[in-house]
Amino acid sequence: MPDLPTGNAVIGQSGGPTAVINQSLAGVIEGLRAGLADRGKVKRIFGMRHGVRGIAKGHPEELVDLTGTSAERLERIARTPSAALGSTRDKPDDAYCDQIIEGCRDDNVRYFFYIGGNDSADTCRIVSEKAAAANYELRCFHVPKTIDNDLRENDHTPGFPSAARFVTLAHMGDALDNASLGGIKINIVMGRSAGFLTASAALARSLRETDDNPAKRPAPHLIYVPEVPFAMDEFLADVDAVYSKLGRCQIAISEGIRDADGKEIGPQLMASGEVDAHGNVQLSGSGALGDGLSDILKKGLTPAGGKSLRVRADTFGYLQRCWPEPSAVDAMEARTSGRHAAELAAQGDAGASVTIVRTNNALDSYRSTCGRADLSAVARHARHMPPEFLSGRNNVSTAFYDYCYPLVGDLPRLERF
Questions:
Q1: With contact defined as beta carbons under 8 Å apart, do 32 and 344 qualify?
Q2: DSSP string of 211-249, one letter each residue
Q3: Same domain, 238 and 359
Q4: Nearest Cα to 252, choosing from 49, 101, 396?
Q5: Which sequence positions are flagged as catalytic?
């Protein structure tokens, strides 16, 4: 039996919410109750309001006592999308992390769990290192979460399968609308640096279509992700090839598409743009990319003196994150990853990031398990779509279909004359 500290535990949620982030919260609580609390090592379980703001000394937020939460209420919380404790975009610097340590001392917190993306893993890393330097025993665990699916060391990340299911279903319905009236339709999907979520639109096709000719593919006919350099003249040619053949074209585009020099296209089409706490131009709250590309298509493809093309664009934005019909696989894995974090703590692990490991990829017998990685292996790093998931400049490969299909769940079979 490892020699474990005795004290309290805190749990926080950080970054963009997801449809299953509360499953992870419930999993941590259940795992703590079954392990450290039953052994008397965790006396109370607290939730941090709005992430680390809830524990940092001098910040206005607060802790919520979750110790006695009933199983029935916990289950309702788990099935509710968005962050039940509230979230934050704060990226703590050294001084902020000192305040976190001070708050942990005041509340005798010895176990720190943070549910979020790579910035959250980095917060865990910094807090863990500063606590060790201050000779304060604090065990820090990162529970993965992000719809972008961009965490290293993971096969995929809780939150992504549910968002991918939404994107798939949205493109299925939108393709039928596009087929009914014709024209060009652009859908802007979240993903600043990784194209996994945009690529999931390909699952809207009834077949695993990888034809080199986009006019022979079911919709979406064209898919553009940040990993493949975006050239405007090629984009115009791609759309023209589909539209001139079919009279319609559905396009899925990542908000973070970049040119050959690595510069994002979105900010180039914006007259001005707000930046977030990390200095990034805010793309998800703006329709500038879709509107800009629509204008370029109208000008570039409308014949001289002819009728202007019918081009429309939708920016999916926050709708992708918390749609209340999650993937069943996602809900299960998010819950399991939270429990695993608590189990690692009970086993004497001093701190880690939980990972998802795929063990069987067959569509009818998909399996996964949880592993661990050092916080430094996940913190700050971004994962990108591997080349084998991509086909040409505007499509996905069979390997991506094999990867993504088991995660999103059963899809409806649609029909038209």
A1: no
A2: -SSGGGSPSP-EEE-TTS---HHHHHHHHHHHHHHHSEE
A3: no
A4: 396
A5: 148
Q: What is the pLDDT of residue 137?
A: 97
Q: Count H helices and E strands in the chain, helices first.
A: 12, 13
pLDDT tens digits for range 347-368? 999 999 999 999 998 777 899 9
CA distances to 66, 172, 176, 392, 417 from 180, in Å = 51, 13, 6, 28, 11
Does residue 182 lie within any of the structural domains?
A: yes
CA atoms within 13 A on the CB side of 123: 30
For 150, phi and psi rounded to 5 degrees? -110, 25
pLDDT in tens, 16-41: 999 999 999 999 999 999 999 989 99
DSSP annotation of 319 reads G
Q: What is the pLDDT of residues 227-240, one digit of tens each?
A: 999 999 999 999 99
CB 409 within 8 A of CB 327: yes
Counted domains in the chain: 2
The tokens describing 346, both together, are: 């009970």
Domain, as residue range, for 119: 7-159+326-378
d(CA 160, CA 293): 26
Question: Sheet containing 248-254: which strands, arranged edge to edge?
Answer: 222-224, 248-254, 183-189, 311-315
